[in-house]
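Lab notebook: predicted structure, single chain.

Context: the supervisor wants predicted structures on file for every construct in the current expression panel, including those that have not yet been purified. This is the next one on the list. No modifications to the sequence; it matches the entry in the shared construct table.
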Amino acid sequence: METVAKYAYEVYKKESFTKAAQALYISQPSLSAAISRLEKELGFKIFDRSSIPLSLTVEGRIYIESIEEIMESESNMRKRIRDL
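Prediction complete. Output recorded below exactly as produced.
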């Protein structure tokens, strides 16, 4: 999975850019910039920044659910390969 998708998922889990940046060992401005670039590329906002704690937009919910599906698929692939 792309690094920026992992960043977005961490922001979602922590409900905070600051806490996510600390967990990812990057600066908060760098994290915010990466998420902003991702949102621009996708054409929609992932996070509603006006609420505390941070919340997802409707489109953001779909994006995060898709990331979770990708993570599950990657986990299943690794398990299948280990089981060979």
